[in-house]
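Internal tracking record. Fields below are filled automatically when a chain is submitted to the structure queue. Please do not edit lines marked as system-generated. If the sequence contains nonstandard residues, flag them in the REMARKS field before resubmitting.
Queue: standard
Priority: normal
Entity type: single polypeptide chain
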Amino acid sequence: MATKRNAFYAQSGGVTAVINASACGVIEMARANRDRIGKVYAGRNGIIGALTEDLIDTGKETASAIALLRSTPSGAFGSCRYKLKSIDSHRREYERLIAVFQAHDIGWFFYNGGGDSADTCFKVSQLADSMGYPIQAIHVPKTVDNDLPITDCCPGFGSVAKYVAVSTLEASFDVRSMCLTSTKVFVVEVMGRHAGWIAAAGGLVEDHGIPVVILFPEIEFDEKKFIARVGKLVKEHGYCSVVVSEGCHYPDGRFLAEQGTKDAFGHAQLGGAAPVVANMVKEALGHKFHWAVADYLQRAARHIASKTDVKQAYELGKKAVELALKGHNAVMPTVERLSDVPYKYRIGVADLAKVANVEKFMPRDFITKDGYGITDKCKRYLRPLIQGEDYPKYGRDGLPVYVTLKNVAVAKKLGGFALKA
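SYSTEM-GENERATED OUTPUT FOLLOWS
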């Protein structure tokens, strides 16, 4: 792109402890290339901000405020779960995007999200061919689920894995101390609809002497075998911990945690596997239990973020801008692992056509033969991703110093636009 044009950046899907680190990388890299990139606008609440012309002028933020994004959790500009349909069936939306982009001279598009967001970014990247509007669209990877293909890992995963591993370890120490006369089984539910990467992180506590059972979405749930496994561990150790993925399901496909409702992307609304599993144990074995659902805590825990994860999130944000400046379109920067010990990687690039709507599941050789633990190969994969601490600064009140941006709105130039469900 020869002429200087403005950029659009937005965050999509479930936010993470490090998605703002990617935003920091994008914005700082764009500011370092003012000869090619003009203003950087952020979409308020993801792609919805583009459709409704609700843009934020990131140029109103100081360099120090943008730098603080690197250590601030959640989405600084707001996120959304809104997936663009095909151009043929929803041409009205794409015409609106073009109108907004033209009105604000936007030629660079950076979309920070997971699998569904990759699909949206890919569709935007095709605007030049399908509707004659020149734009370069780069997807910035993000998802705690770690299920994007091609890339070795996804920003957000390392930190949630560290949180789950640490929390499982600490809670297990608690149970161990009380098991003689009180709680014998602790169950924690973690995120992961179809892929068990997050649940797998709980298996790292095994090396610390903790008896643990992992329930993966990749392994069909067998209640009889599960109860037998828990009973055996409690008999041997006096207690055990269970890490259950929200996507754990029966052989017929029914989720243990299914509530009968759908989210904005049309996926089954999950949440509640932990009490289901805990009550199974109580009814079958009579053991006293406690259960917890990590929910937002696991993905918002910036205070214990993985240093590796923060670094990669920032680097991939910067790389997205570099790829755009080199003329790339419809691509995503990736992490390419070079070695486990010492951990080495490089930043690569993937074609979005091969990323959008493709999920990466746990390899079977990462899961033990009995289906309830992780193998040494999986541990070698996980360990580097949770290494190091990147603590935020703490204020006089004892709480982390996180930034809340001013998020100054850009003056609208077009009429309103009603979103369709």
